[in-house]
Amino acid sequence: MNTTSTGTESPSTVEAARRSAPQGQRVAVVTGAARGIGEGIARRLARDGLHVIVADLPITQEGIDSTVDEIILAGGTATGVSVDVTEEDSVAALVAAAVEAGGHLDVFVANAGIAQVQELLDYNAEDFQKILDVNITGVFNSYRQAAKQMVAQGHGGKIIGAASIVAFRPFAFLGAYSATKWAVRGLTQAAAMEWAEHGITVNAYGPGIVGTAMWDLIDEKLAAKNGQQRGEALAENAASIHLGRVSVPADVAKMVSYLASEDSDYVTGQTMLVDGGIQFS
């Protein structure tokens, strides 16, 4: 039975689209998918024909539901699941939910992450530990749990992580964030080496300056530091973009679409920049 929805099907059919994938459909998990880049990735993968597990923190349930609804109204299928990526048991439960929805796991996008804008001399230990927990431990938990499931299935899969332009070129006032994204890049390479024998590719994507809430925060903090008006700090950084515009989540989602597809079967261990030409690697 076709369980996709165009917005005109019966409530029972729409509910089916929210909960389970048609037989043979590929299944992708996207963490941090309630808004921003994660939402854009989830919507793109659904458009590519995958059943998407839209995952985010319990406090973002409204955003999870909204993303799922938008996917279904566009003709896709999706399941909403809450997760805390800093807790490995929570990530294991997320993977189990994906398998329950689709029978298997084909793609895991470890997108969840946070940014903190602060001078290193003013950083406190609690904030530093929090960004480590989310941006490094969260990706480690996601990679490991996804790989365990893919190894058990015996037919490989795609694991994709969220790095950043700062994995190649750190920014001032983003010291801790930069360190975590360098770590994601290194973890991605090591995981690619270890899991290649299982047919699992492991890659990461590195957004540059994206028009999301995270960059709004960066702009606000930099403007306050430098005595600027809101928007001026962002404009200064954006001036280095060779393609002449700040990116949008759809730009990043296109790269993830490629990394999740069979077109990237011979690509592994890479961190692919999506920055409009700020940094050449």
What is the topology?
Blueprint: H1 11-19, E1 27-31, H2 36-47, E2 51-56, H3 61-73, E3 78-82, H4 88-102, E4 107-110, H5 125-153, E5 157-162, H6 175-195, E6 200-207, H7 213-226, H8 232-238, H9 249-260, E7 271-274
Parallel strand pairs: 1-2, 1-4, 2-3, 4-5, 5-6, 6-7
* Class by alpha and beta content: alpha/beta
CATH architecture of the largest domain: 3-Layer(aba) Sandwich
Number of helices: 9
How many distinct folded domains? 2
Number of strands: 7
Mean pLDDT: 91
What would CATH call the class of the largest domain?
A: Alpha Beta
Sketch the major β-sheet.
7 strands, parallel
- Broad shape: globular
CATH homologous superfamily placement of the largest domain: NAD(P)-binding Rossmann-like Domain
Q: Termini separation (Å)?
A: 46 Å
Strand content: 5-15%
- The helicity comes to 40-55%
Structure description:
This protein is of the alpha/beta class. The protein has two domains: 14-208 and 248-274, NAD(P)-binding Rossmann-like Domain (Rossmann fold, 3-Layer(aba) Sandwich); 209-246, no CATH class. It has helices at 11-19, 36-47, 61-73, 88-102, 125-153, 175-195, 213-226, 232-238, 249-260, and strands at 27-31, 51-56, 78-82, 107-110, 157-162, 200-207, 271-274. Strands 3-2-1-4-5-6-7 form a seven-stranded parallel sheet, with helices on both faces. The longest helix is centred in the middle third of the chain and has 29 residues, at 125-153. It starts with 10 loop residues before the first helix and ends in a 7-residue tail after the last strand. The model is unreliable at 1-13 (pLDDT under 50).
